[in-house]
Amino acid sequence: MSHFEPNEYIRYDLLEKNINIVRKRLNRPLTLSEKIVYGHLDDPANQEIERGKTYLRLRPDRVAMQDATAQMAMLQFISSGLPKVAVPSTIHCDHLIEAQLGGEKDLRRAKDINQEVYNFLATAGAKYGVGFWRPGSGIIHQIILENYSYPGVLLIGTDSHTPNGGGLGGICIGVGGADAVDVMAGIPWELKCPKVIGVKLTGSLSGWTSPKDVILKVAGILTVKGGTGAIVEYHGPGVDSISCTGMATICNMGAEIGATTSVFPYNHRMKKYLNKTGRADIANLADEFKDHLVPDPGCHYDQLIEINLNELKPHINGPFTPDLAHPVAEVGSVAEKEGWPLDIRVGLIGSCTNSSYEDMGRSAAVAKQALAHGLKCKSQFTITPGSEQIRATIERDGYAQILRDVGGIVLANACGPCIGQWDRKDIKKGEKNTIVTSYNRNFTGRNDANPETHAFVTSPEIVTALAIAGTLKFNPETDFLTGKDGKKFKLEAPDADELPHAEFDPGQDTYQHPPKDSSGQRVDVSPTSQRLQLLEPFDKWDGKDLEDLQILIKVKGKCTTDHISAAGPWLKFRGHLDNISNNLLIGAINVENGKANSVRNAVTQEFGPVPDTARYYKEHGIRWVVIGDENYGEGSSREHAALEPRHLGGRAIITKSFARIHETNLKKQGLLPLTFTDPADYNKIHPVDKLTIQGLKDFAPGKPLKCIIKHPNGTQETILLNHTFNETQIEWFRAGSALNRMKELQQK
């Protein structure tokens, strides 16, 4: 599987056996997604299979966790009482490094500030058999692509951009920490049988058009929820014009359309990448089993999108949502019309989406042209290498110096500004401004906690060109720049190698192997720590209907996991449930007053912060509910957005619709994610009402629950609420959480 794990092997033979069993049962051609997913079924002979309907019990090959989510995942695993993880697992330190002064200084500062957390993760990894990638090693998804992903793998990761591994032909799915605990405990993992959206690519990429433009175009077509419950499967002759890391970029940002994951078929570009990253033996094995690593001819897709790469133009999406797509040629005029700032304050390249050797090379090719004419960036410019291997290699090959010469600052090998880890100094909070990034998300306040920052996402080479020009009105395909000598010139479309001619430079060794004997390994969590807190079990369901639930907040409009549990400065509390609960829903807009973090306390009638009001209700024994809008919980896989409402006394979240990962996370923590049978019923509920949820004694799959709305004037209305619970998930609810249920089964 990986040279870090010499005793763990790829089981293409088992994949083939399971595929053959399912193929015989279904008697039809299979998509690539189906081959990999059904090839990992726990019981392929008897598993009920119906796309979009049944729940599959799967056996993933491995687990990956980033440091912000690994804290809670490992705390839950410790609570399970199990001695070792049952599948290969890794922890990656990438989320806790704040961009401030530059790579080395920021890394030293992070190691000092986060020493307690890093020590916990390192010792927990050593104790329970989990590989540990130290801070500075790089972003989890780049490390996975370089070392762990392979064609046909089923990998789950505690980060929503885990689908990045689909660029190497794997089914890589973002999950919450409780899901990871199930897999690490050796329990079959449940996933609703995904639908499959086919994206047929014809033509070939050329000029300024990049792999990023493919997913920006798809996001514009499907929107932020159009991929929910589906795997996006790319195929067609156009695939071969895209590099392996380019395919990873496309799969990575598939998270922004709500897709379960995205995947490309195995081809020579993947083989080339495997060979260059020291895995020629895996490439040779994949060649032998290639028929199982591509879709069958004539397979059926639930939806089919066709994109001609010859006609695709460079795109830029935003602001405030990643599905607002514009051709680069048009965004300037749209910005003028909408009143968005044209002046670009900062251009930022890198992130898990676009930090490959090819990405850095194409950006350097643009920068080199500007330097040849005596120009530097008009905007501030930052560069985030995806891994220590990428950093060392672009330093050796001169790309990093070119990007510095044009005015860039090379940041640490980490997530940095993409997730809000950015100590931004050039503006004041509330100042209207524009930034352009090669990241994946651009929700309000995500990068710098400033709600007035208009963030746009595009390819690294377009970011570089726009940072040089300094304005959204610049179109590098047609517009001219003025050199230092006063002469006008046009940037040529960038060209760069997808992989280095020489071998990759691995840089510093940042990996910690788990010891063979960990019997003497201690994992300490201080009872006075402000960063880490051992978990207490949540209370079991009392066997009764939920009577007179108070409405904590009725949310207006978009409510992502960033709104529910903000990142940025709050990341330091990801291992301490009580402390991080102080950010519960502070970004959500209250329909009652149009404000964030201001809700009415039903007892005192005073308005106050959401977390304080929730704590007041908990202290006074008042159970509460949240009312949400469409696609509630889109974005990150962070399970803190589910743990926090449970910890502070929440019992149900009722919305028009949910994002997949968040809905599962809520179920795992013993909450009730419910949806209006009639979405118009959202308008019947007012923040001052009380709700009673009936039918829990007869809680069953597919059976709606009844909700009685009690208005302050004494009148009542009854509505129906749908749910997607299966029998196993109903047991989680009754036990109080999935972890409680696991312990019950262990005791039995």
Automatic annotation (TrEMBL):
It is found in: Mitochondrion. Residues 518-528 have a biased composition (Polar residues). Its cofactor is [4Fe-4S] cluster. InterPro entries: Acnase/IPM_dHydase_lsu_aba_1/3, Acoase/IPM_deHydtase_lsu_aba, Aconitase/3IPM_dehydase_swvl, Aconitase/IPM_isomerase, Aconitase_4Fe-4S_BS, Aconitase_4Fe-4S_dom, Aconitase_dom2, Aconitase_mito-like. GO terms for molecular function: 4 iron, 4 sulfur cluster binding; aconitate hydratase activity; metal ion binding. Binds 1 [4Fe-4S] cluster per subunit. Keywords: 4Fe-4S, Iron, Iron-sulfur, Lyase, Metal-binding, Mitochondrion, Transit peptide, Tricarboxylic acid cycle. NCBIfam families: aconitase_mito, PRK07229.1. Belongs to the aconitase/IPM isomerase family. This is Aconitate hydratase, mitochondrial.
